[in-house]
Design goal:
The complex is a heterodimer of chains A (113) and B (114). Helices cover 0% and strands 56% of the residues of chain A. Chain A has 113 residues and is an all-beta fold. Chain A starts with a strand and ends with a strand. Chain B is mostly beta strands and 114 residues long. Chain B is 0% helix and 60% strand. Chain B contains no helices and eleven strands. Chain B has strands at residues 3-7, 10-14, 19-26, 32-38, 44-50, 56-58, 64-68, 73-78, 87-95, 98-104, 108-113. In chain B, strands 2, 4, 5, 9, 10 and 11 form a six-stranded mixed sheet that branches. Chain B has a five-stranded antiparallel sheet with strand order 1-3-8-7-6, with no helix packed on it. In chain B, strand 6 (56-58) and strand 7 (64-68) form a beta hairpin. Chain B starts with a strand and ends with a strand. Classes of the chains: A mainly beta (113), B mainly beta (114). Chain A binds chain B through residues 4, 31, 33, 35, 40-45, 48, 50, 55-56, 90, 92, 94, 99-102, 104-107, and chain B through 32, 34, 36, 38, 41-46, 49, 51, 88, 90, 94, 96, 99-104, 106-107, 109.
Chain lengths: 113, 114
């Protein structure tokens, strides 16, 4: 049973389209995150939610909108996709009091043509 | 704000040789420090973490790291490299008072030659 699961794993789409990536964790964690990994493997935090409340919102274009319907789910919706959005997006979760140790999903590779 | 710098984007060792991956941190408070490993087409998984207890931390797969405050370093070592250690390694730092905000280094790709 996968602890942090993301769908879809691969996404190929045209510029200007809107797409969503879903994430679910079955670890009972309070906090969930979205990270973006670029082609040089650099990992950048985008958003963090704690019990459905947004607590970190880095300098990310407002075309990106996270939604957390409950503490086990954190989805990422992207409007008007651009070439520069091509990357691997990782969902992660952590438990309060765990020193912030992150559990990652396998990633969703987004390619914008 | 916390940050980490990984020295060397690519390290190549022979099988059986010592692995040394370097990480230096910057933090205004005593930090929590982590090493994660990423195998191809997978997510990151935790190797080990330092949370202000013992300065020498042992992790999975024979890796260990030593926290050196005087050098602001947290280098990762393994005495004898195995082919299966080939992966991308990330150092990360968080603030114990706000450990929802973890910052990663740029990563070091480890290649192991037969």
């Amino acid at each position: 049973d996968t602890a942090v699961s993301q769908t879809p794993k691969y996404l190929v789409t045209q510029m200007g389209n809107d797409k969503s990536i879903k994430c679910e964790q079955n670890l009972g964690h309070d906090t969930m995150y979205w990270y973006k990994q670029d082609s040089k493997k650099f990992l950048k935090i985008m958003f963090s939610y704690n019990n459905k409340e947004l607590i970190i919102n880095e300098t990310v274009p407002n075309r990106f909108s996270p939604k957390s319907p409950d503490k086990a789910h954190l989805n990422l919706h992207i409007n008007s996709l651009e070439l520069g959005d091509s990357a691997v997006y990782f969902c992660a979760s952590s438990r309060r009091g765990s020193a912030g140790e992150l559990f990652f999903g396998e990633g969703s590779r987004l390619t914008v043509l | 704000a916390q940050s980490v710098t990984q020295l060397g984007s690519h390290v190549s060792v022979s099988e059986g040789a010592l692995v040394l991956l370097r990480c230096n941190y910057s933090s205004s408070v005593p930090p929590y420090l982590f090493w994660y490993v990423q195998y191809p087409n997978q997510g990151l998984q935790l190797l080990l973490k330092y949370t202000s207890a013992a300065t020498l931390v042992k992790g999975i797969n024979g890796f260990e790291a030593e926290f050196k405050k005087s050098e602001t370093s947290f280098h990762l070592t393994k005495p004898s490299a195995h082919m299966s250690d080939a992966a991308e390694y990330f150092c990360a730092v968080s603030d114990p008072n706000n450990n929802n905000d973890m910052r990663f280094g740029a990563g070091t790709r480890l290649t192991v030659k037969p």
